[in-house]
Design brief:
- With 178 residues, the protein is α+β, with helices and mostly antiparallel strands.
- The chain has one domain: Cyclic phosphodiesterase (Cyclic Phosphodiesterase, Chain: A), CATH 3.90.1140.10.
- Helices cover 28% and strands 43% of the residues.
- It contains four helices and nine strands, in the order βαββαββαβαβββ.
- It has a five-stranded antiparallel beta sheet with strand order 2-6-5-4-7, with helices on both faces. A four-stranded antiparallel beta sheet has the order 3-1-8-9, with helices on one face.
- The longest helix has 16 residues.
- It is globular.
- The protein starts with a strand and ends with a strand.
């Protein structure tokens, strides 16, 4: 089963993200569907039921506080010269990174690899190609993001089923923050 850990977003935040997606410059790209917008804390890939149970047991030990978060700036991966993903940051990035590191520490004891480079972000679109790269980047930089605030009160273990219409996410277990 293909799985990941995520912070699911409130509906009002997802709706704002869809408004931002509508402002993205023209290009051949796949927008992330509103119901699938989330912040990935850790991607596992294909794992067994046995591993899922190990993850659940390990993450029941999580002792993290709820966070007040806000949308940050737009960014791209891997670089401005070669755009493949358009994303929006989530602040406070350092606090979210600490949360991710604590999760990694608990899972490392269960023989799961640590994340190499974590970036606190929400993927908005996957870019296949653009006609005019210079104009694309210019228009991307013109998008203004309101620092919308929201609470992070839990994270979840998600199952991802890939279909021809895009991924379908299903929550396996939620982990409450204190």
């Amino acid at each position: 089963m293909r799985c990941f850990l995520a912070i699911r977003l409130p509906e009002d935040v997802r709706k704002k993200l869809v408004e931002i997606q509508k402002q993205l410059p023209e290009g051949k790209m796949k927008l992330v569907e509103e119901e699938n917008l989330h912040l990935t804390l850790k991607f596992f890939g294909e794992i067994s039921d046995f591993q899922i149970n190990k993850i659940k047991r390990a993450l029941e030990q999580v002792k993290m506080r709820k966070l007040e978060a806000r949308l940050g700036k737009l960014g791209v991966f891997p670089s401005i010269n070669f755009v493949r993903v358009i994303w929006i940051g989530v602040e406070p990035a350092e606090e979210i990174k600490k949360m991710q590191e604590e999760i990694d520490s608990l899972l490392e004891k269960e023989k799961f690899r640590r994340e190499k480079k974590f970036e606190s972000h929400i993927t908005l679109a996957r870019v296949k190609s653009v006609k005019d790269k210079k104009e694309f980047i210019k228009k991307l930089k013109e998008i203004i993001v309101e620092p919308i605030k929201f609470s992070i009160e839990k994270f979840s273990l998600e199952k991802s089923t890939l279909t021809s219409k895009g991924p379908i996410y299903e929550t396996i277990k939620e982990f409450e923050l204190s």
